[in-house]
Design goal:
six-stranded antiparallel β-sheet; three-stranded antiparallel β-sheet; 16 helices; 2 domains; alpha+beta
């Protein structure tokens, strides 16, 4: 007989565990998983988030356009203040604030919607990251469950039976008249000594049948045990309960005789078992077979729950060729090893303590191709960076005049140019660090932002066109011809730039 757990080195999860996910993460989960295709779900999440933030964005653009008109009107007075207080910036700033207040100009009024939108995006993105982490790890949780379930099909259908010592309301173990503990088997209660035809039988060797299992009691060196064996002779997996004074411990075992005779075992494996000359060789054959059962079940679950999208094999890893859909244990552990998982009883442990290297390698043994093929080809990363640069460029052009007036020395426009370079660079770093799901989110988000910018510029431009034309006519009437001509030449130079 083989001690199952020690033989295969895989910790069967007797109670499930889960990855922590707050209500916002759960909300993101509902959105993405309800679609059925993970990539499409991410796109839907992005669309919903943009639908929430776009009104703030449009309001901000309208407000900025109004503020720009006000700044235009104030420009002659600002230029006078600049000349008047050229050597006294403190006084100039004070006078400028007074002038802005007088004309109804407010930087905060233009920025507030943008700040609100930014906060919403940050909160939602944190929830998205939490779900991404959850979704990646949940793959391994689900595969572990299927791995275990496939192996346990070779045991009794009642494999989920629980055995414990009966306790009173104070948590004290209940003893019978012989001062022996009482064992609770699922819904049934059994004393250590059972009655049969009026004759008392000792614990050792006595047995009873419940469901499709036979329970056999034994006592070895003062330790009490209960063996649970499936009645089906083709099932070779059974388990033993070690009944301590205060607890019940379960160990899974394999009956070699049943294994060799089981119709569930392939003829090839039986031949290998028969040819094995040593007990160790026989054990290796059995262990290899049992491991393969679980590994194939894990692979089947993975194939049926595809995490790929377009050319990307696994969206929860970056779209790069040096990453793989199923990483090696070192990569997995470095990324998720410190993640806390919560068990049904409330206990939390680091994932590395639940899924060791041996466990991980057993679980992913059937993923030969997935461990070696590229997860992506940098396409989504390049595409997302390109779209972001284009979106930033269009936005910079649309806000050119506004940025010019926001500071007296034109620093607003300069800052925008710097951001056009810096922001894509920062994002590029994130794109390589985070998952392809992040890159997909940023790509769709940038495309929507680009469309909103172009459309809002068209609509807002049309709305404010008449006001601006009227103001320009008024300005021309106030300006001398030589000044108008100079401004015209400067405008043409700026267009060429």
């Amino acid at each position: 007989m083989i001690n199952f757990l020690n033989a295969i080195g895989f910790t069967l999860l007797e109670q499930g565990y889960e990855i922590g996910l707050d209500w916002l993460g759960q909300f993101v989960r509902v959105i993405i998983e309800s679609v059925g295709i993970v990539g499409v779900g991410i796109i839907c999440f992005t669309l919903i988030l943009k639908a929430i933030t776009v009104p703030f964005d449009i309001y901000n653009r309208v407000k900025m356009r109004k503020q720009t008109l006000i700044m235009r009107e104030m420009q002659p007075e600002l230029e006078k203040l600049q000349k008047q207080y050229a050597n006294d910036k403190m006084t100039y700033n004070q006078k400028m604030v007074e002038l802005q207040k007088k004309n109804g100009y407010s930087i905060l009024g233009a920025c507030l919607p943008m700040i609100i939108s930014f906060v919403i995006v940050i909160v939602a993105f944190q929830a998205f990251r939490a779900y991404s982490n959850y979704a990646n790890l949940n793959f391994f949780v689900q595969m572990s469950e299927d791995y275990n379930a496939a192996i346990l099909t070779n045991g009794a259908d009642g494999i989920d039976y629980t055995l414990e010592l009966q306790k009173d309301e104070n948590g004290q173990i209940v003893l019978d008249e012989n001062n022996d503990p009482i064992v609770v088997v699922k819904d049934g209660v059994y004393n250590l000594i059972r009655e049969d035809g009026g004759e008392s039988k000792p614990w050792d060797g006595s047995s009873f049948t419940e469901g499709d299992c036979t329970y056999t009691m034994s006592e070895v060196n003062g330790n009490l045990y209960m063996t649970v064996m499936p009645n089906d002779e083709n099932k070779f997996l059974y388990y033993i309960y070690d009944l301590e004074e205060t607890s019940v411990n379960r160990e899974y075992m394999i009956d070699e005789t049943r294994f060799a005779a089981s119709s569930a075992v392939s003829d090839e494996t039986k031949t290998q078992l028969a040819e094995a000359e040593t007990d160790e060789a026989k054990r290796d054959v059995i262990v290899s077979y049992v491991k393969n059962i679980g590994a194939q079940a894990a692979k089947t679950w993975y194939d049926n729950n595809d995490a790929g999208f377009l050319w990307i094999k696994n969206v929860w890893y970056p779209d790069v060729s040096y990453n793989h859909p199923i990483p090696d244990y070192a990569t997995f552990s470095n990324t998720f090893g410190n993640t806390m998982v919560r068990f049904e009883d409330g206990e939390e442990r680091a994932l590395s303590n639940v899924l060791s290297e041996g466990n991980y390698n057993d679980l992913t043994a059937a993923f030969t191709e997935e461990k070696n093929e590229p997860n992506g080809y940098f396409i989504l990363i390049i595409l997302s960076i390109g779209v972001m640069v284009l979106s930033q460029f269009v936005m910079m052009k649309s806000q050119k005049e506004s940025n010019k007036y926001q500071t007296a020395d034109g620093q607003g426009a300069k800052t925008q140019k710097i951001m056009l370079i810096v922001m894509p660079l920062i994002y590029a770093v994130f794109a390589f660090m985070y998952s392809a799901a992040f890159s997909l989110y940023m790509t769709i988000s940038s495309i929507i932002s680009l469309c909103v910018t172009l459309l809002s510029n068209l609509i807002i431009g049309h709305v404010f066109k008449k006001k601006e034309e009227a103001r320009m006519v008024e300005e021309r009437n106030r300006k001398p011809a030589w000044l108008i001509e100079r401004e015209k030449r400067e405008a043409e130079k700026n267009k060429k730039k």
